[in-house]
Predict the 3D structure of the following.
Amino acid sequence: MKRFRGCLRIALDELRTQRHFYLAFLLSASVFFATLISIMLVTVRIPTVLDEEFADSYINVIEMSKIPDGFLSTLEEMPVKIIDFPIMKSDLIGIDGSDPENRYYTEEHPEAESGEILTRYYDMFGRTGKVVEDKPNDHITRLNEALLIGEPWTKEDNTDNKIWLCEKAAELTGYRVGDVMHFPGKLNTDVTATVAGIYKRDDPEMNFYYITFSIYESVIPKMVENNRTLIRPDSILQHNKVINEIKSYYYYASSYNKSVIDGYMSLLFMLYILCGFIGLMVVGILFATARAYFARRTRFFSVLKALGFRNRGVLTVVCLVTQGVLTVAFLVSQLLSPFLLAYVSDCLSDLYFEMNISTNVWNGTALCGFIAVSALAWIVCFMGKRTFKTAEITELMRSESQ
Amino acid sequence: MKIIECRDLTKEYVSKTQSQQALAHVSFSVEAGEYIAVVGKSGSGKSTLLNMIGLIDVPTSGELLIGEQNTKDLSENRRADLRNQKIGYVFQAFYLEPAYSAYKNVEMPLLIGGVDKKERKERVMKALEIVGLAHKAKQRADTLSGGEKQRVCIARALVGEPEFILADEPCGNLDSENSKEIMDLFERLNGEGKTILLVTHNEEDAKRAKRRIRMLDGGIVADETL
C-alpha cells in the first residue's frame, strides 16, 4: 500500500509536470467521452421510449375492453346523408386528385344510391346496414374511404355544427351527447359544435371523431389533414392526452407499431455498432498514448529503476497517469456532453425519433461509461507491460555515451 | 565488516559478430567505512564494475555479495529493493528530472521505498542540508548549476541512508572548482562513516581516496591502500 501511495505521488507529479504533453490527448479524450456518453444516453433511452410509446396502447386496449356496452350513447342519425349526393369526384377537398400514387382518389367511384347497403363501418354509428346480396360491395368500401377524408358532406345537408366522438375520446375529454365544444376557426373565430353522438370504436381504421362539413369548412385551413385520416380541428389537438391515446391505440392496432419498433431497433443496433467502433478507437488511442508517454519518459523511468523502482511500479505509474488524464477528460466532457446530446436529440427528432432526452448528463450512465473506459485503460496499459520493462539505466548510459 | 564482496566477476558483451569482455575475473571486497577510488583509462571496465556492484547490470559469471546476501539468483524485484535500500548511486550525467524541484528529485528513492510523508520530509531536508542545498529545495533542477545538480544527485544517493555510495565519474561533467567541492563533500561524508566507491579517470581525484583499485582491460592490475 505504501508503495502504491508512492506511485500515486509520482503519477500526480507527472501529471503536473507533463501536462503540456497531455493537452492534445486531454482534449480529444474529452470529445470522445462526450460522444460516448451522448450515445450511451441515447442507447439507454430507447427501451424507455418504446415503453412510453406502447405502454399506453396496451392499457387503452384493456380499458376499452372493460367499458360496458350500454354505457355509451349511440347516434340517432348518421353524420352524413350518404344517399343524397355523389360520393367521389376528382376535386376532393385538400387532396390532389391527380396524384397517380394515390389510388384512393384517382379512380372513378360508383355512386351510392338510396337504400343501398350499409357496411359494418356504419354500424359504429348506431345504424345497422342492410346487405343487398346481389350488389357488389366495392362501392361501399369506396364510400367509407370517402367518409374518412371528409368528402361525403354536402353544404346543403350539413348546416349544423355537429361532432361525433369515439367512446375513448369522449371518456378522456369528458364530453357527453349534447355538450358544446369550441373550435378556433378561420380568422380566429370561435366555432362551436354540439356533440351529436358517441360511437364504439372497435376498428383501428376508424377515426376518433367525425364532424359535419360546416365545421370542416369553418376551421380550414387550421385543420390537419392526413391521408386516410379524418381532419382534426386544432382544439382537439390541444387535448394532448386524447391525441396520444388515440394515436397509440391506432398505432398499436395497426402495423405502424411494428414499423416504429423496427425503426428504434435499427437505431439501437446502429448505436451498439457505433459504441463498438468507439470502443476500438479508445483502445487504439489509449494504447498509443500509454506508449507515447512511456517513450517520452523512458529516461525518467530508467533512473527510477536504478533508484530501486520495480517494473510493476513503472506499470502502475503509467496506468495512474493515464487514469488521471481520463478523469480530467471525463470532467471536461461533462461540460461538452449536454450540447452534443441536444444536437443528437435534434438530429434524431429530424429523423422522427422523438426521444425527449434529458441533457442532464451527470448520471449513472455517464459514470458507467467512465468506469468502463477506465477499466479499458488499465487493460491496455497492462498490454504494454513488456515494453515498460525495457527501461534500463545501462541502456540509457550506453546510448548517451555513444 | 565486509559490505561488498566480488568473487571472480566477469562481464561479456556478445553480439552477432563479436564478443567483448568488459570485466575479467575481478575479485575484491569492500569493508564498511572505506573510501575507494577505482581508476583506469576509458574502456578499462571500471564503470561496468560499478554497474555490477550497483545491481543495475548482471555479471556473466562470478558472484557478488552485498552484505551477506549473494545477489546471483535474486529476482528482479529483490534486486530493485536492494538498490533502493542499500545502495546510493551518483551518476556522471546526474540524471535528475529537470521539471522537478531539487526536493522532489531527492525525495524519489523514499517515494519508491514507501516512506511516510513526515519522515520523507525530514530525511530529504537533512540530505539537502548535508550537501548545502537546503535553501534551494524548491528550485527546479534545470535551473541549478552543474555543481549544484551533482550535489542534488549526491543528496538523492544519501537520502535512503544506504550502506554504501557508488559514484561514477561524479566530476566528469564539472569544472575544477565544482569538482573540488564535490570531492570535498565525498571526503566529508567518508569522514562521517559513509562507505564510498568512486570511479574516476582523474588521478588527482583518486588520490583523495584511502584505497585505489587500478583497472586495465577489464581486470584489476593494482589494489593500493594509502
Remarks:
- The beta strands of chain A are 162-166, 180-184, 190-199, 209-211, 224-226, 229-232.
